[in-house]
Structure formats: C-alpha cells, structure tokens
C-alpha cells in the first residue's frame, strides 16, 4: 500500500504547497508520513464525527479541505473542538491532511474550477494571478491565483441565473445585492471567503460575483456595478469533496476511498 507521504506528494503535484497563502496551514497536520494507507476519508472539514466515520470504514487518513489546526497549539486538553479533534485523531491512529488555499489557487483541478464546471462556465481564466517568484524574480503563472471568471453558454435573465445557481450548487437560499435588470453572461466565482476579489470581478466586467462570507456593509460595495451572490461558505466549496475523490481515484485504486456522509456545515438554516 502507498504511504501517506506518497499520497501527499502526489496531491502536491496538483496543488503545490507553496501556492498556499501565508496565513494557511496546508499539509500533513497529524500522523506519521511513512504510515501505509488503509483507506482515505475525504471531507471539507476534519471533525470528530468525520474521524468516527473514518474509523468505522477502516480509514487511517482524513483528507480535508480546511486545516483543523490554523494556530499553534500550546496544550492538548480537549478544551475546544480543535483540541478534541486532534486528540481523537491521535488516539484512533487517524492521520489528518489538509489541502486548502493551494487547491483554491490552481486553475486545473482546483476549487473554483469545480464551481465553474457546476455552473457550465466556458472560456474560464484565473481572476487574480498569484505573484509568484523564481530565483528572486517575478514569475507569474496564468494558471495560479485566486478566483475564476468565465461565460455562460447563452445569456440568461438574472432570475433564471439565480435559480440555476440554487439548483446546481444545491443552495437553499442566496443572499444577493439588488438585481440590475440586465442579462447575465459573465460570471466570477471564488469558493469560500472571496470578498477581496470584488474589485477584480468588477474590473473584469462580470455580471455576477459568486462567493461567501459577506458582511452587511460589504454588500454596499457592489454599488450597482455587479450583483454579489453569497451562497454560503460550505455551499460554495461542498463539491471540493468530489473533486478530491476524483483526483485521488485517478492515481490510486488499491485502497478504499470515501466521501464523507457527514455534513460538517456549522451554519444551519431554519
């Protein structure tokens, strides 16, 4: 069986670790990299319930999009959910691997590409290239960066597009700015918290900007130039689970691979 190190090395050929943002903590967070894999549970978040499911399925590795450890841990006493997850993972012999903003920042096989695929966008491109360097010199790559923009095959009314967005992204409700009474063709997307890309989406001429985690006053920034559609953080990235399953399954078939059945969304709707 391949080791955790072998799988992580493969995943980092898809989404190199140096593509992650400075604040991020992608990579192997818990576990011995030389351990042979018995099975992989894929999830958006590493929670206690996900680890329980992994154990029940005979998996000794959880591959999650979001890192359970963002800040340094000074003690492990189980006083909060992060510490409890880490303690449970160690106790149960389950390794934890995260592939976060490095997967957000790749054009091919990335988070935003999956959203664009679900919406049927064509002619896609990275919305904001990441400022990479090589040998101390700028080395931009048009396939590395934040967000994505593309076109619908045919223009749609705003109401029709909102319905398509709800249906294709499995969204129960959408928070959005006032509609502009225009046809929709150019659409910008950013899974998770993408508000920082709004100026780029406007400058690129997008009719809609789909993302999550917008605060009340930030909606005013649309200023009639674009429609912001906040579909929820979990909802915007939920298909990353399927994406990671597809990526891993292309390379490996000699260990079990599962998409979690646990809905890890901490936000509930009444």
Question: Can you give a write-up of this model?
Answer:
The mean pLDDT is 96. With 270 residues, this protein is α/β, with parallel strands linked by helices. The chain folds into 2 domains: 4-103, Udp-n-acetylmuramoylalanyl-d-glutamate--2,6- Diaminopimelate Ligase, Chain: A, domain 1, CATH 3.40.1390.30; 105-233, Udp-n-acetylmuramoylalanyl-d-glutamate--2,6- Diaminopimelate Ligase, Chain: A, domain 1. It has a 6-stranded mixed β-sheet with strand order 5-8-10-11-12-9. A 5-stranded mixed β-sheet has the order 1-4-3-2-13, sandwiched between helices. 40% of the residues are buried. The protein is built from 9 helices and 13 strands. Helix 7 links the parallel strand 10 (184-193) and strand 11 (208-212).
Element order, helices and strands?
A: HEEHEHEHHEEEEHEEHEEHHE
Runs in which pLDDT lies below 50 for 5 or more consecutive residues are none
CATH arch. level architecture of the largest domain: 3-Layer(aba) Sandwich
CATH first level of the largest domain: which class? Alpha Beta
Q: What name goes with the CATH superfamily of the largest domain?
A: NIF3 (NGG1p interacting factor 3)-like
Main structural class: alpha/beta
Oligomeric state of this protein: single chain
